[in-house]
Amino acid sequence: MKYRAKYTKGDNVKFVGHLDLLRSIQRAIKRAELVVKYSQGFNPHQVFSIAQPLAVGHTSVGEYMDFELVNDMSEDEVKQRFNDVSPEGIKIIEVRKLNDGENKAAALVEYGSYKVVLDKNISDDTIKNFISQDTIEVEKETKSGTKIADIKNDIIDAKIEGTVLHATISTGSNQNLKIELLAKALYTYAGEEFDENKIDVERQDLYYMYKDELKGLME
Amino acid sequence: MQKRMVPDYILKQVEKPVRYTGGEYNMVVKNPKDVDIRFALCFPDVYDIGMSHLGLQILYGMYNAREDTYCERVFSPWTDMEAKMRENDIKLCTLETQDEVKNFDFLGFSFLYEMCYTNVLNILDLSGVSMYSKDRGEDEPIVCAGGPCVNNPEPMADFIDFFYIGDGEVKYDEIFDIYKVHKKNGGKRKEFLEKIAHIDGIYVPAFYDVDYNEDDTIKSINVINENAKPVVNRVFVADLNTSYYSEKPIVPFLETVHNRVTLEVFRGCIRGCRFCNPGLMYRPIRSKTVDTLMKQLEAQVKNTGFEEISLVSLSTSDYSGLNELSNRIMDKYSKEHISLSLPSLRVDEFSLELMNKLQEVRKSGLTFAPEAGTQRMRDIINKGISEEEILSGCRLAFEGGWNRVKLYFMMGLPGETDEDIVGIAELTKKIVGEYFKVPKDKRANGISVNVSASCFVPKHNTAFQWESQNTYEEFERKQRILKDAIRKVKQATYRYHDARTSVIEGILTRADRKVGKLIYDVWKSGAKLEAWSEYFDYKKWIEAFSENNMTMEFYNTRKREIDEIMPWDHINVGVNKKFLMREKVKSQLGEVTRNCKEMCAGCGDWKTGDESENAKSTCEMKNKK
Ligand code: SF4
């Protein structure tokens, strides 16, 4: 039986790197005695995947993993068993069984919503003007040096409440915008100095586009 | 939000921030207000190294099993973090509560290797704890140390309030009980040290002083506090089946060197290699039964979710239940995709068959440790293996499809000549020859032999403790000889180590108290993380010696007289000195001593507790006879 679980990466584990997190989750699954199916073949591995790696230092309340269990088990039991033995901060919020032929979360994800605590005051008017520009150009670091890129199409939505930026942006394997890059462009536009180590990022959720609408992965 | 020793914006700037944030599964959480004793346990290297030591999990679990004690971990910060801490005046904290170490009752170190001594001083400094024991105030932690190096505690004597000599499982309860009462009554730190000084295994260096002869050798080691004993006995666990083991080891997020279930199968070693310090220092020989091990494994696998089990000891091939144990493990766990690894197996028919079963598909490299190139030399060091045994082991391995071999040797051994060095290359050549004797269709394609020759360090408490160590120049000369000789064996590559680290290790392992000042000066000049080659700086040591008007030669190349008082002579490690002397003489005659399975060589009596004549020895090999 295939399952999808939505889980958190809390403040106390936000510095755990992607591969280390993966291993930690797999070990928790083992402790929970959830028997994950192994792939056939020369080098068998667990049928298990995580959607869209989260950057080290970010927290999240909307991460996803897909896995296949040998036994059929209720969603609640999977959640309960995992949460009983998972590290503090890595907790399942919700589980649902996947239908046959449903795409893996890792393949679906296209957008992510973020909550960013800023260290400077930027007004909502500023951000309105900022996103209504014709193009939003930023310097992107690539392997061959820095490049100027237009990120306008990567921003679905961005607004500010107090000192918190809420933004929904491209977050996928095809099209991806680092949230820090958006924040930096915004700071530059507002004439503020940017230090990426001084903002706090929390991912809220992940989505994909279906008939021009954002759709959540648990739907 | 969790409290952190350093603010997030700093953590974001350092390598592997997860080294400092804790929160791993099975980390013990207690409210510090609910305990009487707060213990900061420090393995003085970075997290990834420190967390790889089995001893840490044992001590951590054991101390925390006491309701009145909260044991927390602390490690060396990496240099990037240290710089940030110093810049922002942040003191070193434990991982668990992120509280400052300087407010704990105890700061306990495990001395893993000599090259971590400067780390110890750096940790004291970063914690804001007085460096020298004599300067520590009443509100500072009691600083103690145990671990593999403390059988010669002298170089660190000035910095440590008390040493714990021996297996950690034995005396901690007694010490904590005394401390608890002492603290309640508001006693002074010196009084506490006096109260524990009589306990076996406890060495309070401030209660001893050392007189020197004119030639700087030791004249006498004197007790200067009536509570201290003239000789401190090392303590050891009598029965490993009933002693503490960690049921819930911490599962690090970071991939450390040993991220797996690690179980010790037995302690001690039946092989009396004359250069080897751990082989003697973990005696007597005590095994766990297969049933005990299976029970302990089960709990650990269940509580960690690790996907690999590793059985450790100094020489796992010598564990009598190995066959049964590995079969039972494989039966139980292979279907759960949990693999078994057996480091330190001797290569023979049995072990090859076992390894074949274990790894099923991939043949990784095999390791042989002949230690010396000629039979004459192997007899001197009592490495009980003949050339024929080495070659037949290799032949079996080649026939079994292995084609990558690692060979470990040493150079600079007592009585060594250039022929023995060339002998390393000759033995390598013969091993390659064995490969070509195997018919082409039966062997794997292509052979590679990796030769590693480390620089011999005469260690305290071994038969070679009186011997001279080679000079740096001599090591280099021998490395050149070997390089030239090995070049003729096309299939072999030779990796050599920088001899300078071995020279310093050679000084520290047999050092006396005066060397403490040097360690301090070297630290003061910026030394730390010296076990990492990128940070080891030989020049700092040379400068410290010359500034203190001392010579390296006195400690490393000088041959000691047999009746010279050694700096560690007041520590009775259990292996008696007469045995070491006998072994020294035998080595000079090229005579071998048989291993403990064949015959007890009488290295010590290993009685615990009651001192009566007919008390039973705890050495299971001796008892067999
Ligand atoms: S007492 Fe005898 S059998 Fe036991 S370790 Fe010593 S030499 Fe070996």
Radius of gyration of chain A: 19 Å
Question: Averaged pLDDT of chain A, please?
Answer: 93
Tell me which ligands are bound: iron/sulfur cluster
Number of strands of chain B: 19
Q: Termini separation of chain B (Å)?
A: 62 Å
The CATH topology of one domain in chain B is given as Rossmann fold
Strand order of the largest sheet of chain B: 2-1-3-4-5-6
Number of helices of chain A: 5
Total helices of chain B: the number is: 21
Give the CATH architecture of one domain in chain B: 3-Layer(aba) Sandwich
**H/E element sequence of chain A:** EHEEHEHEHEEEEHEE
Structural class based on helices, strands and sheet pairing of chain B: alpha/beta
User: Main β-sheet of chain B, in a few words?
Assistant: 6 strands, mixed
Helical proportion of chain B?
Answer: 25-40%
Biggest interface and residues each: A-B, 32 and 26 residues
The name of the CATH architecture of the largest domain in chain A is 2-Layer Sandwich
Top CATH class of the largest domain in chain A: Alpha Beta
Q: CATH topology of the largest domain in chain A, anyone?
A: Alpha-Beta Plaits
CA-atom Rg of chain B in angstroms: 25 Å
Q: How much beta of chain A, percentage-wise?
A: 25-35%
Structure description:
- The complex is a heterodimer of chains A (219) and B (625).
- In chain A, the strands form two sheets. In chain A, strands 1, 2, 3, 4, 5, 8, 9, 10 and 11 form a nine-stranded mixed beta sheet that branches. A two-stranded antiparallel ribbon of chain A has the order 6-7.
- By secondary structure, chain A is an alpha+beta fold.
- Chain A contains five helices and eleven strands, in the order E-H-E-E-H-E-H-E-H-E-E-E-E-H-E-E.
- Chain A is elongated.
- Chain A folds into two domains: 2-107, Pseudouridine synthase I, catalytic domain, N-terminal subdomain (Alpha-Beta Plaits), CATH 3.30.70; 111-216, 2-Layer Sandwich (Alpha-Beta Plaits), CATH 3.30.70.
- Chain B is globular, with a radius of gyration of 25 Å.
- The longest helix of chain B has 20 residues, at 418-437.
- Among the domains of chain B are: 8-233, Rossmann fold (3-Layer(aba) Sandwich); 571-623, no CATH class.
- In chain B, helix 5 (117-127) crosses helix 17 (515-524), helix 6 (172-184) packs antiparallel against helix 7 (189-196) and helix 13 runs parallel beside helix 14 (418-437).
- Chain B has 21 helices and 19 strands.
- Chain B is an alpha/beta fold and 625 residues long.
- The model of chain B has no long low-confidence stretch (mean pLDDT 93).
- In chain B, the strands form six sheets. Chain B has a six-stranded mixed beta sheet with strand order 2-1-3-4-5-6. In chain B, strands 15-16-17-18 form a four-stranded parallel beta sheet.
- Classes of the chains: A alpha+beta (219), B alpha/beta (625).
- The complex binds iron/sulfur cluster (SF4).
